[in-house]
Amino acid sequence: YTQEMAQTNFDSALMSCLSKNKVVVKDSVGGSGGKGISILKFEGKTLEQRLDILRNEISHRRNDYVIQEYLEETPELKRFNPTSVNTIRVQSLYLNGKWSAVTVILRFGGANAEVDNACSGGISVGVHPDGRLYDYGFNNLATRFDRIGDIVFKDTQLSFIPRLLKHVEEAHTKQYPIIKYIGWDFMIDTS
To answer: How confident is the model over 92-112, as a mean pLDDT?
Structure first.
């Protein structure tokens, strides 16, 4: 599909990806833990080389897949791990006309990882509604961390969290009111 949500053909879709320096290719269903995701890096490649890389990547996929532009995340999140896409997971509940954020979790990748999943070496830290991090984060082995590098969790606040939660509340109550419990994953980009 185009940005205007008009259906396009295969060749046009491929060509639209080649102007980017990085693209993400992901299986449309069945992936978790970062499996089925590839980040293709085109910087310094000719158009023909880019096309070969992309065609090679999609040639071995058996299911439907999504190709999307690689987004650069905000420096506020990038500092937790510069090699992974660091995300915020919000689980929200809309029941009896009342909305609430059940959990808000910062997820960032392990050393040199490109994904943020705990099962792939990442760490998860709870976030208060005002953006303050909880004192401790955990990996998938339940190892407790109070910091990553020079970032002390209990002394850290994410400025965008209150705005993000307002967007989640509006989306949940206005667009999906029939669904009572939703898990949302967000990447906050630089725009």
So the answer is: 91
